[in-house]
């Protein structure tokens, strides 16, 4: 196989959930640059319209569907729409997610001094688990149903380094949600491997997106995210594209059940230094 064939995604049909901004947008962009047909699923119609408009310039085949990944019937219909238009579904990025948000911030956007588990709003727990974990289950399930019919595919979930450690910054429900994603990916890889469906997770460290950008206004978080990493900096969003292309392409044909960290070496640092 030539180098070009190894990274060829030009015949692929892809879905990226949460692809209207941030990391998902970068996944959609690199797939489109590689010639894949890409459908972006996102809740935010304005961002979706803007991103689809920007990414579908030239010959790129990018379109979007407004869908909430926590809404199972709507998500199922959206998958069917893509299968009908593209004929098949080869690559699915289960990426949509939200931050720990108001569970640990005050309504004014300051850090909540009482933002600990005994004061956590239950509806906040439910929302973060639904959006960051259960939606990944919803997405993997539908992807597997479609891919089994066409002989295989690639499913890539966005986990986080939050799956690997705990801290007082990111928020109570976010950490177990991402740990759940890591384990769900391994379980799905075990179950789906014989169907030629490879399931992996990308575990990013700090990338400047809408999610992480909000937290960067806190001095202690900027310090944590930048100075704890071996590279001494946070990442540009475009730095996720190489790994995304690798996992979507023939180059990664023997990689499944992996939780691949891309964090500038942040998790290398012993907890006592943090
Ligand atoms: P982002 O806010 O830029 O993008 C998230 C996208 O998901 C948005 O377009 C949003 O509208 C969409 N979305 C949210 N809820 C949705 C829902 N219910 N249905 C459909 N779409 C929905 O943030 P991001 O940083 O690009 O986040 C993408 C993923 O990366 C998330 O799973 C996040 O937890 C993970 N992550 C991000 C970082 C980071 O530093 N940015 C680090 C680790 C993990």
From TrEMBL:
Its EC number is 1.1.1.-. It holds the Pfam family adh_short_C2. SUPFAM superfamilies: NAD(P)-binding Rossmann-fold domains (SSF51735). Keywords: Oxidoreductase. The keyword Oxidoreductase applies. InterPro entries: NAD(P)-bd_dom_sf, SDR_fam. It comes from the Bacteria. GO terms for molecular function: oxidoreductase activity, acting on the CH-OH group of donors, NAD or NADP as acceptor. It is an enzyme of class 1 (oxidoreductase). CDD domains: SDR_c. The keyword tRNA-binding does not apply. Belongs to the short-chain dehydrogenases/reductases (SDR) family. PANTHER family: SHORT-CHAIN DEHYDROGENASES/REDUCTASES FAMILY MEMBER (PTHR42760). This is Levodione reductase.
């Amino acid at each position: 196989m030539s180098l070009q064939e190894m990274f060829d995604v030009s015949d692929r049909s892809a879905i990226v959930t949460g692809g209207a901004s941030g990391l998902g947008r970068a996944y959609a962009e690199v797939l489109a640059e590689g010639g894949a047909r890409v459908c972006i699923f996102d809740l935010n119609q304005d961002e979706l319209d803007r991103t689809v408009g920007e990414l579908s310039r030239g010959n790129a085949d990018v379109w979007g569907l407004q869908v909430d990944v926590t809404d199972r019937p709507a998500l199922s219909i959206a998958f069917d729409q893509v299968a009908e238009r593209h004929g098949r579904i080869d690559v699915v990025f289960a990426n949509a997610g939200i931050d720990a948000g108001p569970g640990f911030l005050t309504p004014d956007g300051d850090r909540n001094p009482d933002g600990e588990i005994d004061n956590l709003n239950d509806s906040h727990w439910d929302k973060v688990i639904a959006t960051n974990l259960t939606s990944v289950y919803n997405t993997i399930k539908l992807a597997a149903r479609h891919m089994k019919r066409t002989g295989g595919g690639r499913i890539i979930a966005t986990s986080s380094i939050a799956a690997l450690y705990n801290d007082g910054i990111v928020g109570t429900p976010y950490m177990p949600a991402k740990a759940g994603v890591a384990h769900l990916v391994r379980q799905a890889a075990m179950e789906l491997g014989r169907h030629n469906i490879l399931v992996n997770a990308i575990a990013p460290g700090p990338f400047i997106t809408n999610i992480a950008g909000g937290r960067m206004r806190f001095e202690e978080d900027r310090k944590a995210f930048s100075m704890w990493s071996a590279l001494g900096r946070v990442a540009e969003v475009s730095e996720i594209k190489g790994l995304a292309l690798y996992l979507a392409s023939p180059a990664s044909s023997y990689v499944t059940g992996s939780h691949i960290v891309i964090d500038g070496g942040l998790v290398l640092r012993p907890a006592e230094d943090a």
